[in-house]
Design brief:
By secondary structure, the protein is α/β, with parallel strands linked by helices. The chain has a single domain, classed as Metal-dependent hydrolases (TIM Barrel). The chain has eleven helices and 13 strands. It has an eight-stranded parallel beta sheet with strand order 2-3-4-5-6-7-8-9, with helices on both faces. A hairpin with a 2-residue loop joins β11 and β12. Bound molecules: N-carbamoyl-L-aspartate and zinc ion. N-carbamoyl-L-aspartate (NCD) binds next to loops.
Length: 346
C-alpha cells in the first residue's frame, strides 16, 4: 500500500502570477493544488490603486481553467504617494487582502517601491486602524550592504523600528531566509508572522554557486548558508503558528534567467507540495505539513481554512514533473531540487 496523507487544501501566501500569456500559462500550475493565493502586485506598471487591483483580478479570473476552484487574494503595491483612503476603501469593499511594501529597487519590478518608510506612515497608520495586513519584502537596498546581509540589516534598520512605532499593524515578513528573521519573529510578541518559500527550505547558496552558477536557483532574497536553511526547516516544521507557506513562485522565461544579467525568481508552483512533503518527511514532521501549508496562513489573516482536501501519495519510484512549462511568452523552467521526488498530489 502506498503511503498517503490527506490534508486541508493549501493556500499560497506569496505568489507571482504575472499577466497576459504568462498568466494564462502558469496559473493552472497553482490552481491545481492551491485554493487561494496572495497575488503579488509587481506588474509593469504595478498594481497601485483599487481600480488596478479590480482589473487585475478580472484578468486572473478570465485566465482560470474551466472548473478550477481558485480565489486570488489581491494586494496593492505601496508607493510613496499611495492614498490612505483608496487603500481603506479597497479593504472595506473586500477587494484587497493585504498591501505590499517593496523597498524601492530591492527586487524584480520594484522601482516604484517605497523610498523612505516615513513617507508611508499615514497609510500604515490607517492600515493598523482597520486591521489590514502589510506584506514586507524585508531587504535593504543600501549598496554598501552585502547582499547576503540585506535581510538582517533590514530587521535592524526598518522592521524593528516599524514594529515599535506601530505595534497594532499586522505584518508578514515574507520569504524569510535567515535565522535572524526566524529569531526576530519568535521574539516579537504580536502581529508579526513570516512566510517561508519552498526553495529556501531545499537549497542553500552552495546549490546556487558550487560547480557552476545555476541561474534557476537565483532568487531574492538570495539563498543563504546551510545553517540558515536548517533554521527555516526547523521553524516551518515546528507547528509554530507564526510560520506558513508563501512559495514566492516567480516565473521568468528561460532566456531571461539563462542570461548574462539573469532575473531573480524560482518557479515552484508545479511541484511545491511534492517538495514540501519531502522536506517535512525528512524532518520527521509530516504531521506538521497541514499546519504550515493549510492552517496557519488563514488563521493569521483571519480567514477560515479551506473545506476541500488534497491527498499526497508517496510512490516507490520517482514522480516525474515537467522540466518546463511552455507559456505563450516562452518556456519557464520548473524548480528542480536536485534529487528525485516521490510524493504526488491528487
Ligand atoms: C520576484 C519576481 O520575480 O517578481 N523575484 C524573486 O526573486 N523572488 C520578486 C520578489 O518577490 O522578490
Ligand atoms: Zn516574491
Amino acid at each position: 500500500m502506498p503511503k498517503t496523507l490527506t490534508i486541508t487544501r493549501p493556500d499560497d501566501w506569496h505568489l507571482h502570477l504575472r499577466d497576459g500569456d504568462m498568466l494564462r500559462g502558469i496559473l493552472p500550475e497553482t490552481a491545481r493544488d492551491f485554493a487561494r493565493a496572495i497575488i503579488m502586485p509587481n506588474l509593469i506598471p504595478p498594481v497601485i490603486t483599487a481600480t488596478d487591483a479590480m482589473a487585475y483580478r478580472d484578468r486572473i479570473f478570465n485566465a482560470l481553467p474551466k472548473g478550477a476552484d481558485f480565489t486570488p487574494l489581491m494586494t496593492l503595491y505601496l508607493t510613496d504617494t499611495t492614498d490612505p483612503s483608496d487603500v481603506a476603501a479597497a479593504h472595506a469593499s473586500g477587494l484587497i487582502t493585504a498591501v505590499k511594501l517593496y523597498p524601492a529597487g530591492a527586487t524584480t519590478n520594484s522601482d516604484s517601491g517605497v523610498t523612505d518608510i516615513a513617507k508611508v506612515m499615514p497609510v500604515l497608520e490607517k492600515m493598523a486602524q482597520i486591521g489590514l495586513p502589510l506584506c514586507v519584502h524585508g531587504e535593504v537596498t543600501d549598496p554598501s550592504v552585502d547582499i547576503f546581509d540585506r535581510e538582517a540589516v533590514f530587521i535592524e534598520r526598518v522592521l524593528a523600528p516599524l514594529k515599535a512605532a506601530l505595534p497594532d499593524l499586522k505584518v508578514i515578513m515574507e520569504h524569510v531566509t535567515t535565522s535572524d528573521g526566524i529569531d526576530f519573529i519568535k521574539e516579537t510578541a504580536h502581529n508579526l508572522a513570516g512566510t517561508i518559500t519552498t526553495h529556501h527550505l531545499m537549497i542553500n547558496r552552495n546549490a546556487l554557486l558550487v560547480g557552476g552558477i545555476k541561474p534557476h536557483y537565483y532568487c531574492l532574497p538570495i539563498a543563504k548558508r546551510e545553517t540558515h536553511r536548517q533554521a527555516l526547516v526547523q521553524a516551518a516544521t515546528s507547528g509554530d503558528k507564526r510560520f506558513f507557506l508563501g512559495t514566492d513562485s516567480a516565473p521568468h522565461i528561460d532566456p531571461l534567467k539563462e542570461n548574462g544579467c539573469g532575473c531573480a525568481g524560482c518557479f515552484t508552483a508545479t511541484n511545491t507540495m511534492s517538495c514540501l512533503a519531502h522536506v517535512f518527511e525528512n524532518a520527521g514532521k509530516l504531521d506538521k505539513l497541514e499546519d504550515f501549508a493549510s492552517l496557519h496562513g488563514p488563521a493569521y489573516y483571519g480567514l477560515e481554512p479551506n473545506t476541500a482536501t488534497i491527498t499526497l501519495t508517496k510512490h516507490n519510484t520517482a514522480v516525474e514533473f515537467p522540466d518546463k512549462i511552455n507559456t505563450g511568452d516562452g518556456p519557464v523552467t520548473v524548480f528542480d531540487p536536485g534529487f528525485p521526488l516521490y510524493w504526488s498530489t491528487s
